[in-house]
């Protein structure tokens, strides 16, 4: 991020997000350095950059290059180092090392995913190994209240308060004194943030008349009737279309029961419960022709070529079975109207943006399907990992976020 961009976008970020960075220490730091941060909002790179007085090259999902105009704009503004999402990418590591060797600085959001529930998500192992190869300082920045300002499942920014501050600095001597595994633990602890715990200690209101809109992207299992994909939302409330359970999403981000038999007061509690509920289910006895999940209005893309995506079919039905993912629709350019992927052939699956599911096959090809805005892509990723664990007869330990 250049000084020109900081001057141009700084006032926008501060005003739109009511954002402040306590840069009393960071403004004295110099390049090169590796800067790490927790990930909650789309503008986290801009927020991080406002605390430093030198350009930062950010590691970002390769999906950015497929955003056409927006992707070119982001490329111009933050000069991202592209990384394949959800899988290891040695080329990205080499580019990081190259930038640092030239005296530049690199920004990384190691979670690689924005949180759905306000709690920091899984940090893949290997960060410590990267840091052991460096001879520059490692800086950890804590971004606070981003989840309530712009929750991943929502479409609107809520007027409240958002802050960032320096959490920790590791010198080259610090990293040399630790093993890679110890560094992994230290950095995970430094990056961890629980938005609800912070909100309980120091409550702030986040105002928006449509603050519950699209919360079903995060909360996709009803705790009262156990229905999956039955949550609908409007304005500040959401309900189950099967059993009538109804809740309000408060201005403080907590859940208020209107008609409910469960006792969840946060999105975090609900999400932890629904993940546990899915982990305990047994889909092995389900008939081969009965889908676990099914939704209309899906569009399938081939993302195998870097910086480009090719539409395969649109207006389709996506069906997730216990051993395969099937999309049916209107084929493009002579492509077949039905495309099938065996779950055993999937190397990884992840949520991209608001309503897209991206997945890599073990042969290196990449695909993505886009869902209607009121359908949860998160539920597909979680169920894909659950079904894969059953096929491999292993315990489900990771669910894509």
Q: What do these coordinates show?
A:
- The protein is of the alpha/beta class.
- The two termini are 27 Å apart.
- The model has no long low-confidence stretch (mean pLDDT 90).
- The protein has a seven-stranded mixed sheet with strand order 1-7-6-2-5-3-4.
- It has eleven helices and 18 strands.
Short description:
By secondary structure, the protein is α/β, with parallel strands linked by helices.
Secondary-structure topology with pairs:
Blueprint: H1 3-17, E1 19-22, E2 34-37, H2 44-49, E3 57-61, H3 69-78, E4 81-83, H4 90-101, E5 106-108, H5 127-132, E6 138-144, H6 146-149, E7 162-170, H7 172-176, H8 180-191, H9 195-201, E8 231-234, E9 237-240, E10 246-249, E11 255-259, H10 267-280, E12 293-302, E13 310-320, E14 324-331, E15 338-342, E16 346-352, E17 356-361, E18 366-370, H11 377-391
Parallel strand pairs: 1-7, 2-5, 2-6, 3-4, 3-5
Antiparallel strand pairs: 6-7, 8-9, 9-10, 10-11, 12-13, 12-18, 13-14, 14-15, 16-17, 17-18
Record field, number of beta strands = 18
Named CATH topology of the largest domain: Glycerol-3-phosphate (1)-acyltransferase
Strand residue content:
25-35%
**CATH structural class of the largest domain:** Alpha Beta
Whole-number count of domains: 3
**Mind telling me the C-alpha Rg?**
21 Å
Shape: globular
Attribute tags:
401 residues; alpha/beta; Glycerol-3-phosphate (1)-acyltransferase; PH-domain like; seven-stranded antiparallel β-sheet; 11 helices; globular
């Amino acid at each position: 991020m250049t000084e020109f961009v900081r001057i141009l976008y700084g006032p926008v970020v501060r005003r739109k997000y009511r954002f402040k960075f306590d840069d009393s220490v960071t403004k004295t730091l110099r390049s090169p350095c590796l800067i790490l941060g927790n990930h909650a909002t789309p503008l986290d790179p801009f927020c991080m950059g406002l605390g430093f007085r030198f350009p930062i090259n950010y590691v970002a999902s390769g999906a950015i290059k497929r955003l056409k105009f927006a992707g070119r704009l982001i490329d111009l503004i933050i000069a991202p180092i592209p990384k394949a999402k959800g899988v290891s990418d040695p080329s990205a590591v080499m580019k990081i090392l190259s930038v640092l060797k030239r005296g530049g600085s690199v920004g990384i959001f190691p979670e690689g995913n924005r949180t759905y529930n306000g709690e920091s998500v899984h940090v893949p192992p290997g960060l410590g190994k990267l840091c052991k190869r460096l001879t520059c300082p490692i800086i950890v920045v804590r971004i606070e209240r981003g989840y309530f300002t712009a929750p991943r499942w929502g479409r609107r920014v809520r007027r409240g308060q958002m802050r960032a501050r320096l959490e920790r600095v590791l010198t080259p001597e610090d990293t040399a004194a630790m093993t890679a595994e110890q560094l992994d633990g230290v950095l995970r602890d430094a990056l961890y943030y629980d938005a609800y715990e912070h909100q309980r200690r120091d409550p702030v209101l986040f105002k928006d008349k449509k603050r519950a809109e699209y919360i079903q992207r995060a909360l996709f299992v009803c705790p009262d009737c156990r229905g999956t994909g039955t949550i609908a939302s409007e304005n500040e409330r959401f309900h189950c279309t099967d059993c009538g359970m109804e809740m309000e999403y408060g201005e403080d981000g907590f859940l208020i029961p209107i008609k409910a038999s469960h006792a969840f007061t946060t999105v975090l509690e609900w999400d932890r419960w629904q993940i546990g509920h899915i982990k305990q289910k047994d889909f092995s006895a389900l008939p081969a022709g009965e889908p676990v999940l099914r939704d209309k209005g899906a569009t399938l893309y081939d993302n195998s070529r870097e910086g480009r995506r090719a539409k395969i079919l649109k207006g389709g039905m996506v069906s997730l079975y216990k051993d395969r993912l099937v999309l049916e629709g209107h084929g493009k350019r002579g492509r077949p109207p039905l495309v099938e992927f065996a779950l055993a052939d999937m190397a990884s699956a992840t949520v991209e943006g608001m309503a897209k599911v991206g997945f890599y096959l073990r042969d290196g090809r990449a695909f993505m399907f886009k869902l209607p805005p009121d359908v949860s892509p998160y539920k597909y990723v979680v169920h894909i990992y659950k079904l894969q664990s059953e096929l491999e007869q292993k315990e489900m330990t990771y669910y894509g976020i």
